[in-house]
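Hey, can you fold this one?
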Amino acid sequence: MGNDMMSWLQGLKNNFSKQKQVSIVMGNEAADLDSMASAVCYAWYLHLDDPSQNSFPLINIPRADFKLRTEAVYLFQEAGVNIDDLLFTEDIDLEKLKAAGTLKLVLVDHNKLASSQTGLERLITGIIDHHADEAAYPPAAVTDIKPVGSCATIVAENFLKDQQDTIEKSLGTLLLGTILLDTVNLDPEAGRVTNDDSKAANKIIEISGLDSKKLFDKLQFEKFNVSSLGSYDLLRKDYKEWQMGSVKLGIGSVLLPASDWAAKDPDIANECDRYLKEHKLDVLLAMNAFTSPGFTRQLVVYVPDGNLRSKTVTFLEGSDLGLEKLEINSSSDGCTFYNQKNLGISRKKLQPLLKEFFEG
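Sure. Predicted structure:
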């Protein structure tokens, strides 16, 4: 049956353009692995259940952002899914479908639409989710919302209930891999797994013969494997920005040592400059966090304006971060590199300190 799911995926784009009425199955705007895998698998389930529904999965991010979800890139490839076959936000105009009166929405991995999509609320016909129920949907919507470790668990339960014979290696890989990553390999000590997660995962393992430990270990590795990403993508993979008085500041969280980053890209300063200009920033920081061999934090500072740079560096060097300058051989004269001795200060904790400094 694996080829059937693949044939269906391969036909998505072509078939979408031919349909009048469509049911779009969509994950949340953060588009983590659970959202993406659940959207694809549940749309396939709805198609099997009733092909006349014209169900299509929507990956709720631009196509260019998919490669940043390195664990999803791995799992979809492992399942044999061609990313080119999937539909992303630039492929489906939800507002246009709404205006034409041809849209039904099924939400997975969230039960309240993002602020940019709230105008579509009345079109929600179904929800599969594991977050707290915010009841921001039409009363007639058919919902299955319960506090399990992974939304993929609830999707899997639907297959196990009445489409069990369709669970083969591809579908099993997507569902099982997602459940394992969300529940830290079904580990009770991580505090995320429920009996329902374990039951669904173990049944899929039994049916598909997949090696759960091998799959989880590879996913966990790929989640933090940023070796395929260039500087620009490293900065935007996990990025937040704030307006602090007259200063616009951005902080990227980068999962590799500054020395490795500089060796990989001797032109970090130019890439930081491009990123800073595109985001209209005054200050760009990268907080590097990695384990090699023990947990380590580093900081990269890029501020083109000389006066602001001097003030920012003086503040950071005098703060509780415990900064120690790093000499890194690269042509990145515009960047300053530091080891951060105080491992307790994460981005979440640094942000209010910077806010107080820039607004003070």
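The two ends are 63 Å apart (CA to CA). Let me know if you want another pass with a different chain boundary.
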